[in-house]
Amino acid sequence: MTFLVPFDGSYLAEAALLRAAEYGEALDEDVVALTVVPDDDAYAIDVGWYEDGEDEPFSVPYVAGKLHEGVTDIAPQAAFRYERIDRQTPAAIATQIRSIAEDVRPSVVFLGTDNVGEIAHPVTSVAGGIAENPTYDVHVVRYYAPPSIPEMQLEEGSYADE
């Protein structure tokens, strides 16, 4: 089994990667962080992957390397994969992620997003395009730390309805 995490360096993508790494460690499963990088310096600047005036000129491998460092900081055991695309639309990014998911064949895709529940398939969301695939489960991460539910922390051998 493999857990796939679309990773764009955002706060919730980091949370999804952390959660996937925790589950992966507990279940002895592989984790793959996937970054889709549009070949567009304006897009990279807009999402905070690149700044005008950096010592290194914009390139997809350079941006992917920076995102890889973020993955390694959070989940050193995770594999990292990046894909380059020409178009920077959410639909194009989601299509590329779905294509890679067909190759990786994950059992679960961990999505860090705050707008999956707002409308069924938001135009600006990559998540909607990924979540619609029925070949894998989707774990939606909307908070960095999972909520603590004290009443669910039971003694070994007991049940919630006892």
UniProtKB/TrEMBL annotation:
InterPro entries (alphabetical): Rossmann-like_a/b/a_fold (IPR014729), UspA (IPR006016)
SUPFAM superfamilies in alphabetical order: Adenine nucleotide alpha hydrolases-like (SSF52402)
Any single Pfam family the record assigns to this protein: Usp
Residue intervals of the UspA domain: 2-142
Organism lineage: Archaea, Methanobacteriati, Methanobacteriota, Stenosarchaea group, Halobacteria
Entry protein name: Universal stress protein family protein
Lineage top rank: taxon: Archaea
